[in-house]
Every structure is written in structure tokens, then in C-alpha cells.
Amino acid sequence: MEVPQSVPQGAPWWRPDRFARCRPFLVERARLTAELRAVFAARGFTEVETPALQIAPGLEPHLAGFSTELLGPDRQRARTLWLHTSPEFAMKKLLAAGMDRIWQLARCFRNGERSDLHHPEFAMLEWYRAGADWRAVVDDAQALLRALAPAGLRRHDATVDPGLPWRFVTFEQAFRDVGIADVLAIDGDLAALATAARAIGVRVADGDRFDDLALRILGERIEPTLGFDRVTVLHDYPVSMAALARQSPADPRVAERFEIYVAGVELANGFGELTDAKEQRARAEADLALKNELYGETWPLDEDFIAALEHGLPESAGIALGFDRLVMLATGAPRIDDVLWAPVVGV
To answer: 82-112: string of b/e by CB count within 10 Å (b at 16+)?
Structure first.
């Protein structure tokens, strides 16, 4: 794809001479959006739409959210609502309501995030299958990437063919590959993990928890190596790092969480969904307490989500895929701002 290279410095994004650089990527984005609808229709999915305004934006302790005030008819403040970080809770409520195959291309919001791969408002492609396990949604992802990017997915000098058989690597094996043996056996043993981290040149910070250090090792030593010769699925995360995924029936130390990587880019995150309301409440409360401990703030617990689990969430699997990142990889665009019709300004 030929893209104009001369970009005026400091010019607003809407200037034709600056916009010309992004236009080919955006024309392709429109085509990809139409194509993904055809893929999901062919696989028997129903497109849904859920509100961005929610009681709680999510659970991840390290994310920052955007809040707003919902006014009553008298224009007096009624309550604080949040822009969701993912449509996950609302879509799972639809599963509890009886839907079985659903997908959504949702606008999502995460405060404090801006980089070549991050934007405070972004597009999340999320889908769920009732009565299926996590490998079924990986199969959907394979069909999607092969349909949308038959010429390959590109990041800098790397080109990855999604048509090749995908590689599946466990969390434990990925750590073993960088010199840390038996990470599951030392799960929770911070001293042992710290020693192993230092041995491979990863910084150990004061106040690190086990999961903090494991994520740093993952981000610095493992993720940059994944998905170069073929799309890679990293799976079987420790339970402590998978708050919304169910425990694996084959190994209680791990949960049915997976991530999909292409050329070192995390493209998607998915689960065999946790359906036990009591266990979900305990994990949610622990994450919210950790958020308060780390950042001095917390979010509400979406009691309606817990009620939906209590009513009965079917065995199911779901996945969230960063659509802007997929467009980047399909077009070879170097930055997320290059594939957005209009960026958020002010940062």
C-alpha cells in the first residue's frame, strides 16, 4: 500500500496534506469492517449493541477509567456512571438472557493510555459462544484473520501468514523458553521469581507482587518474541492472572485464559468464561481491593453482572480483539493514530 511520506509537523489531523498519509489505511479499514460482518454472519453470529455507559467499567486493577454523571429528568445528579473498558459484562448478560452466538464492534475507553499501540478511545471486537470452549473462539479468530488478511499481517519488517497453522504455547512453556523453569511451581513465591528475573536481566522493583513481576517478564522478554513466524496463542495463565476465566479442569493451577500474538503485538485476549457467581464475586472484590491499595481509588462492583451469573450463565467462551490493531497489522500502518478516522486530541 503506497502512503504519502511527507507529513507536516504540528499540523492538525484534518489538514488534507496530513490526512493523505492515513487515507489509504482508512479506506482499507472500511473494507475490513464490511468483511468482518460477512465472516460473522457466515458463522451464525448475531451482531449486538450494548451501552458504553455502565455501572462499572471493568475489573482490571491497573486500568484507569472515564466517569460521568447521569442526570435524572429534573436535571439533578442521579448517579456516577463509567465508560466501559470492554463490553464484556453487558454481553455476558445477553448470554444469560438466552443469546448463544453474539458479536459486537464496540467503542471502548481507557484513560491514561497513549502510544503507538494504545489510544484512550478505541475499537474492540468482542464475541461469545455459548456451549463452547475457548478453542472454538480461537477457531473463529483463525477464520477471521485468514479472511481479512490473506496477504499477511505486517508489523515493521515482519510479515506473518495467518493461513499457516497457528502455534499454541503454554504460559509455563513460554517462561521456560526464556530461562525460568517451573513458573507454576513457584507461583506466589516472590523471592524465587525475583531471583529468576534478575538472572535474565529483568528489573525487580520494591513493592512488586508476584503477578507484577511475572507481567514484567512477560512484557519485556516473552511478548516481543511471539508470533513472528506464525500467529501464536499463549494459553493456560495462572489463575491469579485471569480474574474472569474459569479454572482448567486439567490443571487447577491455571485458568482458561489465552492471548493471540502477531509479530510481538498482543492482538486478542480470551477466556473459557467463569460462570460461578460466588467465585466471580470473590475475584472481583479482590481485584477492586488491590486497585484501591495500589492507586487509592476503586470502581463499583456490578451487582447486576453477579446476579446474571447467579441466574445462570451457560458454559461459554469469549474473546476481545483490538480492531484498530488488526487494521494496523492488515495494512502495515506503524501507529494506531494512522488507522483512526479522527484521533482524540488534547494529549
So the answer is: bbbbbbbbbbbbbbbeebbbbbbbbebbbee
Q: How far apart are CA 284 and CA 85, in angstroms?
A: 15
Planar angle of CA 118, 124, 301, nearest 5 degrees: 95
CA distances 66 to 75, 89, 102, 103, 286, Å, are 21, 17, 26, 24, 21
Cell of 109: 475507553
Place of cell 451482531: 47
CA distances in angstroms from 127 to 40, 90, 107, 293, listed in the order given? 9, 12, 14, 32
Q: Which three cell numbers stand for residue 221?
A: 522478554
Q: pLDDT tens digits, residue range 245-276?
A: 999 999 999 999 999 999 999 999 999 999 99
User: Over the stretch 56-79, which tens digit does the pLDDT of each residue have?
Assistant: 999 889 999 999 999 988 888 789
- CA gap 214, 187 in Å, rounded: 9
The separation between CA 208 and the C-alpha centre of its own chain, rounded to angstroms, equals: 23
Q: Which of 88, 78, 79 is nearest to 52 (CA)?
A: 88
Query: Are residues 305 and 86 in contact, defined by beta-carbon separation less than 8 angstroms?
Result: no
The SS3 call for residue 219 is helix
Written as one string, the DSSP assignment of 32-49 is HHHHHHHHHHHTT-EE--
C-alpha cell of residue 323: 480492531
